[in-house]
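Hi V.,

Quick status before I head out on leave. The structure for the redesign project is tokenized and pasted below; the design run finished overnight.
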């Protein structure tokens, strides 16, 4: 059993003890949480941080009893106000959720019902949990929207979710969560996908409402800066284990686990120059789901790991008053020297300086005389990275879709290497201009395996068919008959090669994107600069 922090004077609003959760997949039990224990006090904000795939959202979903059907709670208790929610029946859970405990989800666009107006969705909470009439429930919904600083709440009630911006959708989700003055509020990446202005507004709103409602908050995020601002205490999760926890200010100022220190060094720091300095990525990647972990889960990536670290799992040790760290050598962590990264970038593109992409007076107008893009002119040279910034609704994504060809510009011209891109594009034009979408969950087909998605892309964009497409994701297909079929097969292999560089294991290619767990090693994007130079992207 894990050592727990000393009990606070007041009984905790939430107490998770020894929580162990696995997912059943293809007859195997893949463990995602191992003996997680934490407390959240009334009125306290507890931050749960870690890279993607560490199990943060699984903790939140377990607390709300929203785990997927293939999830199995193998051990542990989750107490809310002294009651173990794992033992409650469905009727008891329905009475609890939305009333005394509520959750704001990571993607408000998918959490809101697209076929029901905002007013009806918000009023349903008051009608179900407070027994209000339809008219009174709508009045209460309008009042709550005003409380979360939505302009013209009455008009907002009549809109559908797709008619709202990302910031408005998130405000509606917060209003729904706070409608019944809950004792527990779970925030799962509440600002992901929001621009900096809207993010700041939402965080200010959460702080104001927290003071008013005095709810206990579990704040799940990979953004350490936001957690440092919002939370009193922090827990750091890695590969399903809570490896450090303590007061936020102390933990971020003086981390006592090598992983926490590495996370902090992934963040931009005052005085860094993006044209001369790179962030420090964490070497390696998360252990694969289901992999045997006889010792410390971070040993393979740890710069101070020793034989005893791999022999058996280290216990939670008191690293300072009120602080715990799952590290046998936590006193050595402050002395870990920064890594010395190589020079940023590399040789310039062989045709650097030549114009590749050109936009001339590009306009996109939607019905109702809504102008999303108004006469944009720009030019991007070969090997150049152009940043396009602006608030939500300023037209950034619409302009990108005009360039890629997902929407047709109302007027103006888009050229690639001097040739106009308009109307139906041929295969080579489609291959030459590709896009990485903002929301991978909605961009990927949830019913297909990752390998099938990649193989289909290779086939559509290269014209390759049959056996050669099967090279996607193979570690080393050289010497196979398919590899010798030409350029297309080599492109297929390149896809798999770069997946490996991004920390995606070949075993993950067999999984569907539904419930897939990201195994990226760091939030640092300096690898992208390296890859751009490696393959001489135009």
């Amino acid at each position: 059993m894990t050592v727990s922090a000393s009990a606070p004077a007041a009984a905790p609003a939430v107490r998770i003890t020894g929580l162990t959760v696995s997912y059943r997949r293809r007859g195997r039990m893949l463990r995602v949480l191992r003996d997680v224990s934490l407390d959240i006090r009334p009125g306290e904000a507890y931050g749960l941080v870690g890279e993607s795939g560490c199990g943060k959202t699984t903790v939140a979903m377990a607390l709300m009893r929203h785990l997927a059907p293939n999830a199995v709670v193998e051990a542990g208790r989750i107490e809310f106000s002294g009651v173990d929610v794992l033992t409650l029946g469905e009727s008891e859970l329905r009475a609890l959720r939305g009333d005394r405990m509520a959750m704001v989800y990571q993607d408000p666009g998918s959490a809101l019902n697209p076929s029901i107006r905002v007013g009806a969705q918000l009023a349903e909470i008051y009608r179900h949990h407070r027994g209000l009439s339809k008219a009174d429930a709508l009045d209460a919904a309008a009042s709550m929207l005003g409380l979360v600083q939505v302009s013209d709440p009455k008009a907002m009630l009549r809109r559908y979710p797709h008619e709202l911006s990302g910031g408005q959708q998130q405000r509606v989700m917060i209003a729904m969560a706070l409608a019944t003055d809950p004792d527990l509020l779970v925030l799962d990446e509440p600002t992901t996908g929001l621009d900096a202005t809207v993010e700041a507004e939402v965080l200010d709103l959460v702080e104001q409402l927290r003071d008013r409602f005095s709810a206990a908050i579990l704040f799940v995020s990979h953004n350490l800066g936001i957690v440092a601002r919002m939370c009193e205490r922090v827990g750091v999760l890695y590969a399903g284990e809570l490896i450090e926890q303590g007061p936020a200010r102390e933990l971020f100022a003086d981390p006592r686990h090598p992983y926490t220190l590495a996370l902090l060094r992934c963040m931009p720091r005052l005085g860094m120059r993006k044209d001369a300095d790179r962030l420090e990525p964490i070497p390696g990647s998360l252990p694969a789901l289901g992999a045997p972990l006889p010792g410390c889960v971070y040993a393979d990536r740890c710069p101070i790991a020793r034989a005893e670290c791999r022999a058996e799992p280290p216990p939670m040790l008191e690293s300072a008053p009120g602080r715990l760290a799952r590290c046998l050598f936590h006193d050595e962590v402050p002395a870990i020297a920064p890594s010395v990264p190589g020079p940023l970038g590399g040789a310039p593109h062989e045709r650097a300086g030549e114009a590749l992409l050109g936009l001339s007076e590009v306009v996109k107008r939607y019905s109702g005389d809504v102008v999303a893009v108004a006469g944009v002119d720009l030019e991007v040279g070969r090997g150049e990275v152009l940043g396009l910034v602006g608030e939500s609704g300023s037209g950034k994504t619409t302009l990108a879709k005009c360039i890629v060809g997902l929407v047709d510009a109302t007027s103006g011209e888009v050229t690639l290497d001097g040739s106009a891109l308009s109307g139906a594009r041929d295969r080579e034009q489609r291959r030459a201009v590709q896009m990485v979408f903002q929301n991978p969950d909605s961009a990927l087909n949830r019913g297909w395996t990752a390998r099938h998605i990649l193989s289909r892309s290779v086939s559509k964009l290269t014209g390759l068919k049959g056996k050669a497409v099967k090279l996607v994701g193979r570690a080393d297909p050289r010497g196979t008959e398919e590899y010798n079929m030409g350029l297309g097969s080599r492109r297929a292999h390149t896809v798999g090669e770069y997946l490996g560089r991004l920390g995606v294991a070949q075993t993950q290619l067999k999984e569907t994107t539904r419930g897939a767990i990201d195994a990226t090693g760091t939030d640092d994007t300096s690898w992208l600069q390296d890859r751009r130079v490696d393959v001489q992207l135009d």
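Above is the designed sequence. Residues 12 and 41 are 4 Å apart (CA to CA).

G. will cover questions while I'm gone.

Best,
W.
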